[in-house]
Amino acid sequence: MKFKVANINCQNCANLIKNSLEDEFGKIEVDLNVMPRTVEINITQEKLEDFKKEMSDLGFEVLEEL
C-alpha cells in the first residue's frame, strides 16, 4: 500500500519512520522526491489502523491511500 503523508520534510524524518516502525510493520519505503511525501509499505488491512496511529504518534499524518 502507498500513502500520502504530511510533515515528512527530510531524510531524518524518513529514518525516524523506518527505525521506529520497520520492526513491527516490515520494510517501509519513503519517497522524498514528491510532495506530499509518500510512504510505501506491504501491510495487511488488520494492521492498517495501528500503522496510522503509530505514524500519528510520531507526528506524521497519513493523508490518503494511493
Structural summary, described in words:
The protein has helices spanning 11-25, 45-58, and strands at residues 2-5, 28-31, 37-41, 62-65. The protein has 66 residues and is of the alpha+beta class. The protein has a single domain, classed as 2-Layer Sandwich (Alpha-Beta Plaits), CATH 3.30.70.100. Strand 2 (28-31) and strand 3 form a beta hairpin. It is globular and about 30 Å long. The mean pLDDT is 97.
Proportion of residues in helical segments: 40-55%
Report strand order across the widest sheet: 2-3-1-4
Corresponding CATH architecture: 2-Layer Sandwich
CATH topology name, in short, is: Alpha-Beta Plaits
Distance between the termini: 7 Å
Shape: globular
Structural class: alpha+beta
Task: Tell me the major beta sheet.
Answer: 4 strands, antiparallel
Radius of gyration: 10 Å
Per DSSP, the total helix count is: 2
Q: What are the low-pLDDT stretches, counting only 5+ consecutive residues below 50?
A: none
Our estimate of the beta-strand percent is 25-35%
The overall number of domains is 1
Domain HMA: 3-61
Organism: Campylobacter novaezeelandiae
GO molecular function: metal ion binding
Pfam families: HMA
